């Protein structure tokens, strides 16, 4: 850095912002979090200024305290913010034409969700053809614990990310509580199978077929669900097995897209 660049850097210093960024960058490297004293020592800062900055980062949900209250670690807020950025827009743009083709061929609706601050957010939705169907409203929030989308999202995360998601979890209206051991067992089965197919816990007559969209590390960056409705009249609509095959093919294409983008 030459003298002119150094002068510019000094002129535009923002000490409070620097402290906050220093804390975030430090915590990003820590698997088990740090105590306030450890953060103060590692950053060579005054204890009172670290305390004030940590309190603000916790209040703004960028940092979370441990259950015992003595350790601090990053929340998933930065992760969520990154997924609202242009790469997520590119994913939506890539997914929508495929979702439309799926809806036309399978004659079912589908919706795409991402993790956002304790539950799931619907970022894309396509209706199936015909005069009736099942759809989830764009922009609505979906439960993390009791839905196919939520369980698939949890199943394809690292242990650390899953713990953070569950720690940040906020219930949506009507969300059913589930025993943690049962949830862990379900996530393990989903990960082994590669997808979820089961009757909806929100609506009678709907079977959720759900697949993860995987990033380069093999963790779910988004989840696609078809709330399958079985016809009982004389019309021979595509079966749920056929819909699952179509959905798997679409997901594989989207997951490859993410790897290329990375």
Overall shape: it is elongated
What is the name of the CATH class of the largest domain?
Answer: Alpha Beta
Average pLDDT for all residues: 86
* Whole-number tally of structural domains: 2
Fourth CATH level, the homologous superfamily of the largest domain:
GAF domain
Radius of gyration: 22 Å
- The helix/strand class is alpha+beta
Could you list the spans in which at least 5 consecutive residues all have pLDDT below 50?
256-262
Element string (H = helix, E = strand):
HHHHEEHHEEEHHHEEEH
Biggest sheet descriptor: 6 strands, antiparallel
What is the terminal-to-terminal distance?
Answer: 30 Å
CATH topology of the largest domain: Beta-Lactamase
Strand order of the largest sheet: 5-4-3-8-7-6
Beta strand count: 8
InterPro entries: GAF-like_dom_sf, HTH_MetabolicPath_Reg, Tscrpt_reg_IclR_C, Tscrpt_reg_IclR_N, WH-like_DNA-bd_sf, WH_DNA-bd_sf
GO biological process, one term: negative regulation of DNA-templated transcription
Organism: Paraburkholderia acidicola
GO molecular function, one term: DNA binding
What report would you give on this structure?
This protein has 262 residues and is an alpha+beta fold. It has two domains: 3-75, Winged helix-like DNA-binding domain superfamily/Winged helix DNA-binding domain (Arc Repressor Mutant, subunit A, Orthogonal Bundle), CATH 1.10.10; 81-261, 2-Layer Sandwich (Beta-Lactamase). The chain is 48% helix and 18% strand. The chain has helices spanning 3-11, 15-28, 36-43, 47-59, 77-82, 86-106, 148-155, 159-168, 180-193, 240-261; strands at residues 63-65, 72-74, 110-116, 119-126, 141-142, 196-199, 206-214, 220-229. The strands form two sheets. Strands 5-4-3-8-7-6 form a six-stranded antiparallel beta sheet, with helices on both faces. The longest helix has 22 residues, at 240-261. The protein starts with a helix and ends with a helix. Mean pLDDT is 86; it is low at 256-262.
């Amino acid at each position: 850095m030459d003298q002119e660049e150094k002068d510019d850097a000094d002129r535009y210093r923002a000490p409070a912002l620097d402290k906050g960024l220093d804390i975030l960058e430090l915590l990003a490297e820590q698997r088990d979090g740090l105590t306030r004293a450890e953060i103060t020592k590692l950053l060579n800062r005054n204890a009172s200024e670290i305390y004030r900055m940590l309190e603000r980062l916790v209040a703004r949900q960028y940092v979370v305290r441990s259950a015992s209250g003595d350790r601090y670690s990053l929340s998933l807020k930065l992760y969520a913010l990154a997924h609202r950025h242009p790469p997520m827009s590119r994913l939506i743009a890539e997914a929508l034409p495929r979702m439309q083709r799926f809806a036309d061929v399978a004659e079912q609706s589908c919706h795409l969700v991402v993790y956002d601050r304790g539950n799931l957010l619907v970022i894309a939705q396509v209706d199936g053809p015909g005069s009736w169907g099942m759809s989830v409203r764009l922009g609505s929030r979906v439960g993390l614990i009791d839905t196919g989308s939520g369980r698939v999202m949890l199943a394809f995360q690292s242990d650390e990310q899953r713990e953070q998601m569950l720690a940040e979890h906020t219930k949506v209206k009507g969300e059913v509580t589930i025993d943690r051991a049962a949830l862990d067992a379900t996530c393990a089965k989903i990960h082994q199978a590669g997808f979820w197919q089961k009757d909806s816990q929100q609506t009678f007559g709907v079977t959720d077929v759900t697949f993860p969209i995987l990033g380069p590390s093999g963790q779910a960056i988004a989840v696609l669900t078809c709330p399958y409705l079985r016809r009982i009249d004389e019309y021979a609509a595509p079966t749920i097995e056929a819909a699952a095959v179509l959905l798997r093919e679409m997901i594989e294409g989207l997951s490859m897209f993410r790897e290329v983008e990375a």
